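Standup notes
- HV: blocked on the assembly model, inputs below
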Amino acid sequence: MMHANEIEAIKSLLASPKKIAIIPHRNPDGDAMGSTLGLYHTLLQKQHDVVVIAPNEFPDFLAWLPGSENVLVFEKNTVKCTSLLESCDLIFTLDFNALHRTGEVMEKVLSTLPTTTIMIDHHQFPDTYANYTFSDTAYGSTCQMVYDFIYALGDENLLNKTVATCLYTGIVTDSGSFRFPKTSSATHQCVADLIDRGINNSQIHNLLFDNSSYNRLLLLGKALQNLKILNEYKTSYITLSQEELDTFGHQKGDTEGIVNYGLSINGIDFTAIFIENKEEGIIKISFRSQGDFDVNQFARKHFNGGGHINAAGGKSNASLAETVQQFIRILATEKK
Ligand code: 5GP
Ligand code: MN
């Protein structure tokens, strides 16, 4: 947790009504949206004027989250969002630790603002842009950090069903439904508390995971057909071309979680998914590992990305085929 004096400073900042912007990372996932909206509903109860500004559109599978209808999208509404950012007293950045994770234009706006900024995040190697940095890689999710942050402020009475629903969402999605190694007794105690505060945990799972379109399942089928194994490197990978995405009417969020299938194979401890994005002219890559192989380092060193030891992402400007060839060449030196 933050130092007691930092918590005291934030408490006094929040003691009178403020104009507050809360920002998740670009291409926000369940943890980014859950943490920003959880904090949003908490701060609203403290009589602040609060807005969540997402860098770009969030996926449909999170559109049921309470308050998501009020989220502003910087990319779609740049002028309004910029002036809101310029006029606010306080900025929270959640689930990321480097301003470039908001995208080029928004990064430019944020990096020139003098506004007091609070970072809450669980990724490695935080940048130093924030006035108050709550960064801890021991946490499996930013949502669990926001939960502890609310308690540290002495605001646990504000953890109502709405806040708890948002926070539970990020804890479930970032922990792979409580299966990833950072899931601790503290995680389960937090979740027990959230259930006691009235969330419908089973319904949240349904909304998150049993709400697929037929096309999304067909896309998953295609991805699994494309799955390749490199036994000598205990590695697997999946590719999805823009054409394949188009064939199945790809919607934002449809590829979420597909990467994990590559790790579910016996004897495989490293996997990647390469997803072509013609519009942005890049290949978006997700990496996952089990055990000691550090995909954060791998992504940073070779694919202009980052993340955590066992889950990271990156990108490539080469073609899909060239990117995969490059990946396999790198494996020969990095993974024996
Ligand atoms: P995912 O593969 O699910 O998109 O991301 C896995 C983890 O890596 C997440 O914690 C995410 O924030 C991080 N990540 C994904 N893409 C990038 C990237 O391009 N740069 C950095 N620094 N982190 C990324
Ligand atoms: Mn997260």
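- HV (later): unblocked. The pocket of manganese (II) ion (ligand 2) is lined by residues 31, 95, 122, 141-142, 174 (CB under 6 Å). The mean pLDDT is 97.
- Next: hand off to the docking folks.
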